[in-house]
Design a protein that fits this description.
Layout: H1 2-25, E1 61-64, E2 67-71, E3 87-91, E4 94-97, H2 103-112, E5 125-127, H3 162-165, H4 180-185, H5 202-222, H6 231-237, E6 238-240, E7 247-251, E8 254-255, E9 258-259, E10 264-266, H7 268-282, H8 285-293, H9 306-314, E11 368-371, E12 397-403, E13 457-461, E14 477-481, E15 489-490, E16 494-496, H10 509-513
Parallel strand pairs: 5-10, 12-15
Antiparallel strand pairs: 1-4, 2-3, 4-16, 6-7, 7-8, 9-10, 12-13, 13-14
Length: 517
């Protein structure tokens, strides 16, 4: 009887607690500080707090749970640089691309620099299609849209020429090797579709990240009901047909294309201009804030900073006990000092694609791909680390956001550390009045030798297919001018995490199908 009473008490307490939690979590229609009733969608007056709805997971990314970590190189400092001394910091949660950005991804980017994207539109809106049935019977048949690839891209605020946005194929050429065949094929041939893009500069990568932000958010907007969009957007780009009551597309309140009574028909050129006008509108600070307040605008895709990249690569989440003690550190993104897999059917196979020694890029023939690949290999082909990130060691090195300084570790904050520029460690201390070309030694031969460190020097991390194992340690760091490219450096994007997320919040393609939860 005593035990029964105890069970009843526990049961009653559980029910009360459940109702309390439900009451606390239930969305209220009244302000807790002023007592005012919140406005609804149809209200003329009043404040409307938009739901704290979860943003969609960014495409192709996996969630990296932040926390305390020890950054710095665990490897022997062969160069005596002492530019990444161990220190304890905290990194906030963020999203990161599951794999490096591939050639196929970059060609998609180039395509959409000259073509509009296929948006979700109401049924009464039609984009002219030269292949549509009956087009050949028209007096003036619709001609196919052929973008001018010799001219500038269609961006209104940042137009560029084709040569400015494609990778530099010349990174493969050498007077003393037969690699020129890759200059013609590596980026363009479909056989290399899923290989990491290389030959891209830091500045090109930043432009790619900006385009990706605009592209994904534009698609996000057109997957919503127009009524849910800000009024300023509706007034600028949406027109209601007075006869049918249908939504039609416009610019400045004026419809675009033709209306044949049943449908609004828009040419590809006009649809392209329409999208570019929206992107310009979205990027104005006042307008962007309205989208952010409604929870319908993803944060920017960007390069991960050095701390984020190093934290994600080490993935020491796999070494932590419940009492927050790490059992051991990691030299590489996996356990142990070896570069080979110690477990299972793949025991003895290399865990990364790297140069094993002088002249040894792939090992002796015998396996499908030997022990490694002679050049970069397709992304996602080896074991992921404990954050489900692939190729965080080997294959290609990766650009990060930070400006290089050898003593940055002494200047960093201990929460989300980053070096954005030369603040506190001026390039003048390295022999530069400024890092402009006109001040360079090559432009002015009479100048004395200067260090390569200046505000144009950007950090890249991780080893590549052309590096020995030493550089695969996440703590090692190197740098290169922001406008230079090589056949060994690629990149992946990151994004801040809004609110709280759990470990299973993954939107990656490979881990979703083959990887671990």
């Amino acid at each position: 009887m005593k035990n029964t009473a105890g069970y009843l008490k526990v049961g009653a307490l559980s029910v009360i607690l459940l109702f309390s939690i439900s009451a606390c979590s239930k969305k209220t229609s009244q302000s807790s500080t002023t007592g005012a009733t919140y406005a609804t969608q149809k209200s003329n007056l009043g404040f409307k707090p938009y739901d704290d709805q979860a943003l969609p997971n960014p495409p192709g990314m996996v969630f990296v749970q932040g926390g305390r970590t020890i950054l710095g190189s665990y490897e022997q400092d062969l160069y005596g640089a002492r530019d990444n001394v161990e220190r304890t910091v905290t990194v906030n949660s963020f999203w990161m691309d599951e794999t490096e950005v591939t050639n196929k991804d970059w060609r998609e980017y180039v395509h959409y620099q000259y073509n509009p994207q296929n948006l979700s539109l109401p049924k009464n809106i039609e984009i002219e299609d030269p292949n549509a049935k009956g087009n050949e019977d028209l007096a003036d048949p619709i001609l196919p849209f052929i973008p001018d690839l010799q001219g500038p891209t269609h961006s209104k605020s940042n137009p560029k020429m084709m040569a400015d946005i494609i990778p530099n194929d010349a990174v493969w050429t050498s007077n003393f090797s037969f690699n020129d065949v890759y200059a013609e094929n590596y980026y363009s041939n479909p056989g290399f579709n899923n290989y990491p893009v290389v030959g891209v500069t830091w500045r090109q990568v930043v432009d790619y990240s900006k385009w990706r932000t605009d592209f994904v958010n534009l698609r996000q907007i057109f997957e919503m009901d127009f009524d849910e969009l800000p009024l300023t957007f509706q007034e600028e780009f949406i027109v209601i047909n007075e006869t049918t009551g249908d939504y039609e597309l416009g610019i400045g309140g004026q419809i675009i294309g033709d209306n044949n009574g049943d449908k609004q028909v828009i040419s590809v050129e006009d649809f392209d201009d329409f999208q570019q006008e929206i992107i310009e509108f979205m990027n104005e600070e006042v307008n962007k804030r309205q989208f952010i307040e409604r929870g319908i605008y993803l944060p920017q895709f960007r390069l991960p900073n050095e701390a984020e990249w190093e934290y994600a690569a080490k993935a020491t989440i796999g070494t932590v006990y419940l009492d927050e003690n790490e059992e051991y550190g990691r030299i590489y993104p996996w356990d142990g000092r070896s570069t080979r897999n110690p477990f299972g059917k793949k025991r003895g196979e290399h865990l990364a694609n790297f140069k094993r020694g002088r002249g040894d890029y792939a090992g002796i023939a015998g396996n499908v791909n030997n022990d490694a690949s002679v050049i970069p290999e397709a992304v996602g082909g080896r074991e992921p680390n404990d954050f489900n990130l692939f190729n965080m060691a080997g294959n290609v090195s990766e650009w990060v956001f930070d400006t290089y300084r050898p003593l940055s570790y002494g200047d960093f904050d201990d929460l989300n550390p980053v070096r954005k520029d030369g603040t506190g460690d001026s390039e003048k201390d390295y022999g530069w009045e400024s890092s402009q070309v006109r001040d360079s030694v090559s432009f002015n031969p009479q100048l004395e030798y200067r260090s390569l460190v200046n505000d144009r020097s950007k950090v890249y991390k991780g080893g590549s297919w052309k590096d020995v194992a030493y550089w695969m340690a996440p703590g090692t760091r190197r740098y290169l001018d922001m406008d230079r490219a090589t056949s060994t450096i690629g990149f992946r994007c990151a994004m801040i995490s809004i609110g709280s997320k759990q470990l299973d919040q993954s939107n990656g393609i490979i881990s979703r199908v083959f990887g671990r939860k």
